[in-house]
Amino acid sequence: MLEANLKQQLDAYLQRLVNPIELTVSINGTAKSDELLELAREIEGLNDKISLTIDETPTGRAPQMVVAPQGEKGRVTFAGIPMGHEFTSLVLALLQAGGYPSKEEQALQEQAKGLTRELNFEVYVSLSCHNCPDVVQAVNLLAVLNPNITATMIDGGVFQDEVEEREIMAVPSVYLNGELFGNGKMTLAEILNKVDDEADAKAAAALADKKAYDVLVVGGGPAGASSAIYSARKGIRTGIIAERFGGQVADTVGIENFISVSYTEGPKLVAQLEEHVKEYDVDIMKAQQAVALRDSDDGLKEVELANGAVLKSKTVILATGARWREMNVPGEAEYKAKGVCFCPHCDGPLFKGKPVAVIGGGNSGIEAAIDLAGIVKHVTVLEFGDSLRADDVLVKKAESLPNVKIIKQAMTTEVLGDGKKVTGLTYKDRSTDEIHTVNVDGIFVQIGLVPNSDFLKDTLELSNRGEIEVDPRGQTSMPGVFAAGDVTTAPYKQIIVSMGSGATAALGAFDYLIRS
Predict the structure, then answer these.
(1) What beta strand segments (E) does 348-433 contain?
(2) Catalytic one among 251, 347, 441, 486?
(3) How many other C-beta atoms are found inside a 10 Å radius of the C-beta of residue 256?
């Protein structure tokens, strides 16, 4: 089951177990059951602190594995085979059940322990989804910390009947006490904010007494992290607020153009960015959204947060990044996460053997078509222009695939559905004005990014695309306010470019401070 190298790594991790744990595997005679049982037996054989119980007459899901401290009722369950991206989730569950402490912020752990109502989380995943493990690991930790909470990872590929019954068409899909709780990537802090009725008030109170910063960075992506590091290295008081650390990079699978590193993955790079920032005296405030920026009466800048808190700083660096651009056509909003998707790696396996469409003929769109072609029945690519914008090597690969059809000069006009899920789309042939219908079960939108600058429309000068106008030093139209990364007019939206612009903005802010 486990390759020798992976088994060796797991053996090393399991040496950190403090207390005995028990695995309970429910099987039903299927091949997947045999696979899970083999995995469980291999894990048991690696450490004498691990015992295994086999349930051959399960009343619930099977195959599944429950991880629990020995002698306690299990609260963390893996329904399916926790391999692929979820193998890390399994390793952490084993360690945490065995008393190995989590590295999550202590304040968040204490908040989790303080929840008093019963919470039953179910997280539907695909093993190829790189966003799913963050959610699985977050709810698993909640279950480990709080006896009122249970957490179950459910592999949609194994439990397809549940996926169809609940009409799940995007992962991760999180259910809480039987009701849909949310779709997409969520951090522990974001989940706690949704389940803790007093979360906003607690967060606002904790932020209320913060002293003014010299530099306050808004955004935790590559530009924000770079800005915070360069600012802190100057020895000035630095803070950083972010809805989630990493931004769009956290949703990126393979990264092959980050100079000096031949290959890495988004989640790994995000973890390294955060660890680097933590090496400096930076006040990190996560799960916080900025909603307003203004001058204060005392000559400082004020950043108002969604929870009502107001932070002050002598200078501000805006690095709020960008989000996926939507088509803005009828039916898109209604069928989002019901067939309208933005992550082919995450949601592609849910459309196995079904026809799908990809909107966009740039690199991301053609890469999506190539990836999906190996999973789905057929891929129709719709490109607005009269030629594809993707690299030639990608275009040639896509054109060589028998189940990929590329339609140019196609303007998507409507997403069609039956009230529950996507059934197709319509597009206009821009060369003839004819309207055509394509019957598909999924639509993957890959048409670029929109800057996260909505809250700044009446505050700063923005381009006609909504990007923040900056000068060569990163200075915006408001003195003392700088900007960096994808939210700005920088022409190339690349990780390494964002990092450089973050450094530029930090140096510009420092220069502003010493001259003011």
Answers:
(1) 355-359, 378-382, 404-407, 410-417, 422-429
(2) 347
(3) 8
Give 100's DSSP letter: P
Whether 253 shows a pLDDT value over 80: the answer reads no
Structure tokens at 74: 């299990």
Give the Cβ contact number of residue 277 at 10 Å. 22
Q: What is the spatial distance between Cα 354 and Cα 295, in angstroms, rounded to a whole number? A: 54
Rounded to the nearest 10°, the torsion over CA 325, 328, 329, 330 is: 120
Give rounded-to-5 percent helix, strand, coil for the chain. 35, 25, 40
Question: Looking at 132, 155, 346, 371, which residue is catalytic?
Answer: 346
Catalytic residue among 129, 343, 441, 486: 343
Is there a catalytic annotation at residue 196?
no
Q: Which two three-digit tokens encode residue 153?
A: 């990872």
Q: What is the pLDDT of residues 296-314, one digit of tens each?
A: 999 999 999 999 999 999 9
What is the pLDDT at residue 35? Answer: 96
- Predicted TM-score (pTM) of the model is 0.80
74 has pLDDT over 90:
yes
Q: Is 343 a catalytic residue?
A: yes
129 is an active site residue = no
Q: What residues contact 299, with CB distance under 8 A and at least 6 apart?
A: none
Is residue 104 within 8 A of residue 140, CB to CB? The reply is: no
Q: Distance (Å, rounded) from C-alpha 208 to C-alpha 67?
A: 40
Does residue 394 contact residue 361 with C-beta atoms inside 8 Å? no
